[in-house]
Amino acid sequence: MYVVKSPLPDADLKTVAEALQGALVDLIDLALVAKQVHWNVVGPRFRSVHLQLDEVVDTARMHSDTVAERASALGVSPDGRAATVAAGSGVKAVAEGWVKDGDAVGTLVDALGAVITRMRERVAATETADPVSQDMFIQITADLEKHHWMFQAANG
Amino acid sequence: MYVVKSPLPDADLKTVAEALQGALVDLIDLALVAKQVHWNVVGPRFRSVHLQLDEVVDTARMHSDTVAERASALGVSPDGRAATVAAGSGVKAVAEGWVKDGDAVGTLVDALGAVITRMRERVAATETADPVSQDMFIQITADLEKHHWMFQAANG
Amino acid sequence: MYVVKSPLPDADLKTVAEALQGALVDLIDLALVAKQVHWNVVGPRFRSVHLQLDEVVDTARMHSDTVAERASALGVSPDGRAATVAAGSGVKAVAEGWVKDGDAVGTLVDALGAVITRMRERVAATETADPVSQDMFIQITADLEKHHWMFQAANG
Amino acid sequence: MYVVKSPLPDADLKTVAEALQGALVDLIDLALVAKQVHWNVVGPRFRSVHLQLDEVVDTARMHSDTVAERASALGVSPDGRAATVAAGSGVKAVAEGWVKDGDAVGTLVDALGAVITRMRERVAATETADPVSQDMFIQITADLEKHHWMFQAANG
Amino acid sequence: MYVVKSPLPDADLKTVAEALQGALVDLIDLALVAKQVHWNVVGPRFRSVHLQLDEVVDTARMHSDTVAERASALGVSPDGRAATVAAGSGVKAVAEGWVKDGDAVGTLVDALGAVITRMRERVAATETADPVSQDMFIQITADLEKHHWMFQAANG
Amino acid sequence: MYVVKSPLPDADLKTVAEALQGALVDLIDLALVAKQVHWNVVGPRFRSVHLQLDEVVDTARMHSDTVAERASALGVSPDGRAATVAAGSGVKAVAEGWVKDGDAVGTLVDALGAVITRMRERVAATETADPVSQDMFIQITADLEKHHWMFQAANG
Amino acid sequence: MYVVKSPLPDADLKTVAEALQGALVDLIDLALVAKQVHWNVVGPRFRSVHLQLDEVVDTARMHSDTVAERASALGVSPDGRAATVAAGSGVKAVAEGWVKDGDAVGTLVDALGAVITRMRERVAATETADPVSQDMFIQITADLEKHHWMFQAANG
Amino acid sequence: MYVVKSPLPDADLKTVAEALQGALVDLIDLALVAKQVHWNVVGPRFRSVHLQLDEVVDTARMHSDTVAERASALGVSPDGRAATVAAGSGVKAVAEGWVKDGDAVGTLVDALGAVITRMRERVAATETADPVSQDMFIQITADLEKHHWMFQAANG
Amino acid sequence: MYVVKSPLPDADLKTVAEALQGALVDLIDLALVAKQVHWNVVGPRFRSVHLQLDEVVDTARMHSDTVAERASALGVSPDGRAATVAAGSGVKAVAEGWVKDGDAVGTLVDALGAVITRMRERVAATETADPVSQDMFIQITADLEKHHWMFQAANG
Amino acid sequence: MYVVKSPLPDADLKTVAEALQGALVDLIDLALVAKQVHWNVVGPRFRSVHLQLDEVVDTARMHSDTVAERASALGVSPDGRAATVAAGSGVKAVAEGWVKDGDAVGTLVDALGAVITRMRERVAATETADPVSQDMFIQITADLEKHHWMFQAANG
Amino acid sequence: MYVVKSPLPDADLKTVAEALQGALVDLIDLALVAKQVHWNVVGPRFRSVHLQLDEVVDTARMHSDTVAERASALGVSPDGRAATVAAGSGVKAVAEGWVKDGDAVGTLVDALGAVITRMRERVAATETADPVSQDMFIQITADLEKHHWMFQAANG
Amino acid sequence: MYVVKSPLPDADLKTVAEALQGALVDLIDLALVAKQVHWNVVGPRFRSVHLQLDEVVDTARMHSDTVAERASALGVSPDGRAATVAAGSGVKAVAEGWVKDGDAVGTLVDALGAVITRMRERVAATETADPVSQDMFIQITADLEKHHWMFQAANG
């Protein structure tokens, strides 16, 4: 059924499609993880961390929409279903239950760090294949690295 | 660690906690499913369905936050991680790939129907255990049944 | 044509449908009556009463939409046509022509009182049949009783 | 009681008063009809038609207020009661029950057409009697004819 | 110096210029009178009248700007200086000092009535000379007559 | 003087009136206590606690208005005077002077806990007497329990 | 514990501290009294008085925050607890129960008058001790005297 | 295909259709010319002229939409394609390249003057044919003549 | 009739009343003069001066309301009628007709300068009589001196 | 006259200037074509397509401003006149008259596709010549490809 | 060149000018210091301190504009250049590099304390020289002392 | 103390850090210079230049925050202290005292030109070292070059 003739040659398209699909899964999981900690954090820094986490959720949700619609725009069906996310995310699974504020901050430092590493690989991978998608990965990386700094500073 | 003395007796708390955790998983998955179809729908009704789905996403995200924070308020740690959602959702998994607009509407009719049935059970289950939580389930049901009507009418 | 399988058993549905249809007619007529007096009131309290009436109009219009769409959500076609309203409203017909401010306030005290009585019957009637619809009637009653107080106080 | 010395001679006032009262009844009924269809429409174009109808409701409600207050400003008591509307509207009564989207659009094409014809007669009738009221009828006609086009185009 | 070649023939321009200059003076004075009463009104209806008067001020200021800039647009220098207003206004001078609320309302009924009479003459005078200016006078008259009704009704 | 015929039978009214009056006193005092601590808190968590307390103030002020106006709507004069609050509040008096941030959080945990216990009794007491008032108590309890969680988590 | 080295010499600080603490108690009680009358007023001027009172509440709440935080800024712990207010307010206690609109206005004239007298004494007392605090008292007095005029005019 | 039965007789419709199509072309070109000068103006008055031109663009774009949709509402297909505009505009072509601020103002004086002349002819032409369309031309003329004054005054 | 017992002794009240009444007349005339020039200015700086003048109008209107209501608050009836303004303003009358931009700026430099001189005298005159009124004169002076600088700079 | 010393060497400037001028013409025509179809579309999908087209207009107008001002910033006079657009656009001319909704969608798919192809060439052409301009082309391409997807999906 | 005849005698002007120039330098440096710490703070209180510092930046920037424009209004050229600030600020230089949250708070306590001391001297110095400038220094002092309290409380 | 493991290799990090620190100093000084001229400009173009300069201030402040936080995100402490800015800025020092409008524009043309040259060097220097930082420099350059054009055009 429905086939879009992509503006990209097949090889480039394959590269870009993988990068977008990977980013989609990472960003959805990042939003889920940040919400999970948002609800479960306890400790004297509760309020600061609770609020800071919702800003990560906003960033991750906004960019997951961007990359999924970018995939559609290139004629590639995006996959953001729960099972796909559970199986393919680059974010390490977090433990269930309450989490102390310092550990919560550490969890985010790790989660953001993991996603940033993969996102920078996508920046490199798509440079010649599609500068339009690359520009999106660059801007996503900028936002994630800003969050990364803030959580590191909060544990500094 | 961190223990809240709940305002509810243990038996009531167990009932309410299960209802809230179940609702959390259903609502997170509903949001993921609605986004998945939002990105993959094609056909002459594309724009209407695409926009209508984002309203379901807004409803589901808002209420998932409500029920998770309600669990925390009762001293019960909520679990909204990807693997938990993938394993426990009441929404039937959707197929990957593009979906025709009529099928997209049908998918939502089914997904909303399934969540509504379970949510009405939670309304009944929590009536005596905790009228505060029950009131939340009632309002969630009202919102979901309104969306349910609109998707049914759109395939009517 | 178009048939929705309602989440309610038939007997409950009949009860709820009658309550919703009755509320719809009452609320549309309440809005029409409040507008009629809004345009025809005269006297030293003109401005206060004129403005106060538009707040009743806003409440009545908002809730008439709520109950009509609730009927649709249960698979019951709502009827808000002029002839239906003229025939079935629980609000006593108001006289034509200019109305003195004190009489205008009295008219609203009566109209609101009549609708409140019927709305409280609907709260009772739908308690077991459909707690979702009942919750709507409870909130409508709260709003109407607040208006009722204000008009009574204004003639106190 | 309360008598305003109108800025218009008696004959002109009679003409203008009839035009305003007729417009009031038509516009109130147009709002009721548009809401009725807004709640009862079904079919693949449900969402578009449902939203488009609320724009007609907004137009009709805004202008019904304008013409009623214009009547009051000329010293003529406006009559917008349910029974008056049911008896005197220029809009053909719509059938009860669900309505398919194409029929819904057709219903509005007819209803708007009927009101426009009468509104244009009011433009002509009031030209010399009261250019202020005429200007209102001209602007109402402009708005209604824009809606009329959009519904015709949607069935074109 | 600075001369604009007007789009109107000389005779028409003279007619329109007089109408605009007259309206400018009336509207500036109406704003001053309404503010004067706004500050000096006393009595149980103080708050209602005080607020209602500021709405007249808003209307009068907005339209004085409109007619002055319309004069400029036709190449006619508008004159809204205090001495010109004091000498040429169609509004009867109000007495100094505090004013009871009922008298305040009566003052406005008179002031608005006087300006409306002159504004309707301007509507008639400019019909053939300049339909653009006439349309402005028609809209100003509509607004003033609405205020006029409200103050009459408040003393009704 | 001024007597409202209440929609409730006398016995029910007595129950509901006591619940509303009790809630009014509790909520006014909760707002005063939260402001007192808002001004006197010191320590490294100053800013978080200072801001969090103003959200409690907003909640308590909003709901004190709701319950007082609900009493009026039932024909019962509400009493929110300083002496009444000082004498009848369910919140334990707080000490004068500066308060360390951890103690400030503890003070709120206690104050909210005390009000919640009494509010849940009001939910139970009014269930059959007046579902409209009960619904208000349910929503107030939901809001207070959310604040209660956040302060407990902040000391967790 | 926590000691701020105040920018003011001890004698000046004592003067300013007493003025600020006194203003705090007066303003909190003014807000409580205005709310009490807001809920209990009846009579034909109900709506005007009801709304006007909420503007007093807004003024009193805003300024009570200003003076309390000013005390903290000078290193003086503010005391706004219910018992302190009940014992030390300069506002005469109001009677319980419903109050006719004219009496309601009179109550506010008296309450505002009492607070203004004391506030003007604070303006004088702090002139040399602390021009920053004095400036706050001047602005509070300006706002209160504007309200005072409006209530006097309403009973004029 | 798609045929609307116009509310106007054929002769009137022909007159009105020509006027609307002519206005559409003039207004689109006016917007393009104003943007062209907006980008190319230089000189000490750069910023004022640059900003003033964007207000002309807003006016021209808004009214081009109005007249095009008015044509559609009368059943006449509007034509606003680039080639049609290039061939039929009443605005004299402007030279390419940078333009000094005084010349830029002069260009707009000429362009607005040309469109106004034609727009006034349309006001006259449609007076009996369609007062609804005429009213639009009157309001467009009012806006254009205001801009015309401002550019003339800026070179005065 | 209506007499307010002023918080000021008679001699002080007389001083303050004269200052307020004088300020009222100056500020109303300043607004009229600024509008007059706003409409009549021509020349290359038209747009800048035209806009800058409306900011003076806003300042003058806002502060005329402040001083008039301050007079009322002290029990002194303010007089802002056209004849009073024409007779008593401290602003030199401006010539009729178009005014070149440089002259327009000069007119405002002079008008603002004249009002500032008188306003500074009022600051001095009311220092001991009423610090509340003095504070208003200080803030008005600050605003006027800022405008004064901007017009001087524009002719610098 | 007016010469800007560009930050780019001559050869690079020539490349970038051609790209910007070409993009300007394409984007202006895209806006004109989208508006043309916006006014002329008919059929059951009328409302969706009508609204979707205005979003293309917004995108095209915003970016045409961006590229024209970028050209000016590099010292190159942009040319967006009607004749230039009619002669040089990369968008195929559309037929006059009404257009069925499916054809309307197809027209946009083609128009967007043509502009995207040329815009991607500009991305490639300016990579080394001017990364600042290239970044603008990348972002324009991203927006256009998103619209392209949505119209393709709507005909999918 | 450009000379403003100041409203102040020379001796007063000299006093006020020095005070304004000194305040300008202090406030610009305060904004730079607050931003420096905003970027370099680390530690568990990172987020609270980071946000709190931006509120100081807003205050300092707003008031630096106020005092600079006040100087201009008195005919005195303000000097806010980097070298002037570096040479003349009353704020002690901060060390380069990361700063722990507690030290960051301490830095602000010191910086605000230093500026407040000097600002209070300016309040005293300008009392007779220029009450308008003094009033600005009073309000700046109020704002700074509020920030000072909050940072002291945060280290309390 | 506090060390972030940067995502960049050491050599790249050194390059990027120097570029960011240089940009920070340039942008802070650009904001200070633009404010300095904003306060000191005189002449007939005063208002235009005064307003235009504040837009440069907004741009420079926004981007100085961006680059400083980018440095922090890479683990490099940013230095934006007054002495650092005074010593290292790429903007030529401006003379003290009043500045004629034409010279003010020229000053900005020079200042922007100097910063743009250095910013383009940073775009080139960071291309391979860090595309994320490069993208920020590209966007900063785009904004600065737009301002540069506008000031050049204003002196053209």
List the helices and strands and how they pair.
Twelve copies of one chain form a homododecamer.
Chain A: H1 10-40, E1 41-42, H2 46-73, H3 82-88, E2 99-100, H4 101-125, H5 131-154
Parallel strand pairs in A: 1-2
Number of helices in the DSSP assignment of chain A: 5
From the alpha-carbon coordinates, what is the Rg of chain A to the nearest angstrom? 16 Å
Shape, principal axes of CA atoms of chain A: elongated
CATH arch. level architecture of chain A: Up-down Bundle
Structural class category of chain A: mainly alpha
Q: Outline the low-pLDDT stretches of chain A.
A: none
CATH topology of chain A: Ferritin
Total E-strand runs of chain A: 2
User: CATH-wise, what's the superfamily of chain A?
Assistant: Ferritin, core subunit, four-helix bundle
Q: Per DSSP, what share of the residues of chain A sits in E-state strands of 2 or more residues?
A: under 5%
Assembly of the depicted chains = homododecamer
The average pLDDT of chain A is 97
Could you spell the SSE succession of chain A in H and E letters? HEHHEHH
Main sheet strand line-up of chain A: 1-2
Q: How many distinct domains of chain A?
A: 1
Proportion in helices of chain A? over 70%
GO molecular function (chains A, B, C, D, E, F, G, H, I, J, K, L): ferric iron binding; oxidoreductase activity, acting on metal ions
Organism (chains A, B, C, D, E, F, G, H, I, J, K, L): Streptomyces actuosus
Domain Ferritin/DPS (chains A, B, C, D, E, F, G, H, I, J, K, L): 18-153
Pfam families (chains A, B, C, D, E, F, G, H, I, J, K, L): Ferritin
